[in-house]
Amino acid sequence: MGDMLRLAVGVMGNAASMLLYAAPILTFSRVIKKKNTEGFSCVPYVLALFNCCLYTWYGLPVVSYRWENFPVVTINGIGILLEISFILIYFWFSSAKGKKEVAKMVVPIILICVATGIISSFVFHDHRRRKVFVGSIGLVASVAMYASPLVVVRQVIKTKSVEFMPFYLSFFSFLASCLWMAYGLLSHDLFLASPNLVGTPLCILQLILYCKYRKNPIKEKPQKWPDLEYNEEKIKQEFPLDEIKESKLIVTENLNTKI
């Protein structure tokens, strides 16, 4: 009965995580359409790839005992494919500087994952020690992945707007964290439960902030005026007519002063 319950929770965790991993598809479809990354950060996707690689290895029979953590392998294997796809799209459409930044993040992560696999396979000779070694590194990766949205949380508190924190991302994160925490506890595996003990409160914080600020209008305005060559139609959309006239008047006065 206990194994069946654990498997059922693992299947539900797979479903919730699948929705979470697939959520950025909408963002990257827009990137492909506009052929521009629009200032999006690649850090969350690189950290998610790091997490998926480590926990896929953790769930394989080399580290875990036989296929006791098969649900962990399936969802993280799918996660690897999705995150690699997102990173490649980001790399393709980013600037030269953006490509360098992506490479600087991805290469060390690949090296760490390869080193983790080699050390756990040839240095440690039993499942318990391998799980402790790989699980400890995976714990750090998971905490980093769950902590990455704190930048967005800070932005929400500052602007009192949830524009940059979509509800479905926060909700799917909460759902996945709760289910995998339950799976880890049912498996008596702290390396699966512990990251989600950190992730669940962070997800609850995001949901509380969403409920608090969801009806608030966007209060933050651009701090700088656009360039004089900026598209006039975009200026009309982003700035009130009175502010445009005032800006033009200031620019004219400055030009007259210089002349």
Question: How is this structure best described in words?
Answer:
The protein is mainly α and 259 residues long. It has one domain. The chain has 11 helices and no strands. Helix 3 (43-59) packs parallel to helix 5 (96-122) and helix 7 (150-159) packs parallel to helix 9 (190-213). The longest helix is centred in the middle third of the chain and has 27 residues, at 96-122. It is globular, with a radius of gyration of 23 Å. The termini are far apart. This is Bidirectional sugar transporter SWEET. The chain crosses the membrane at residues 6-28, 40-58, 70-93, 105-125, 131-153, 165-186, 192-211. It is a multi-pass membrane protein.
Topology:
Blueprint: H1 2-22, H2 25-34, H3 43-59, H4 70-93, H5 96-122, H6 127-147, H7 150-159, H8 167-186, H9 190-213, H10 232-238, H11 241-258
Helix pairs in contact: 1-4, 1-8, 2-4, 3-4, 3-5, 3-6, 5-6, 6-9, 7-9, 8-9
Transmembrane segments: 6-28, 40-58, 70-93, 105-125, 131-153, 165-186, 192-211
Keywords: Membrane, Repeat, Sugar transport, Transmembrane, Transmembrane helix, Transport
Subcellular location: Cell membrane; Endomembrane system
Relevant terms:
mainly alpha; 11 helices; disordered C terminus; membrane; transmembrane helix; SWEET
Strand % is under 5%
Low-confidence stretches: 220-239, 243-259
Q: What's the number of helices? A: 11
SSE string, helices as H and strands as E: HHHHHHHHHHH
User: Sheet bearing the most strands, described?
Assistant: none
| Class by alpha and beta content | mainly alpha
Rg computed from alpha carbons, rounded to a whole number of angstroms: 23 Å
Q: What's the count of strands? A: 0
Please state the average pLDDT score. Answer: 80
The separation of the N and C termini measures 87 Å
The helix content, as a percent range, equals: over 70%
Count of the separate structural domains: 1
Q: Choose one word for the global shape.
A: globular
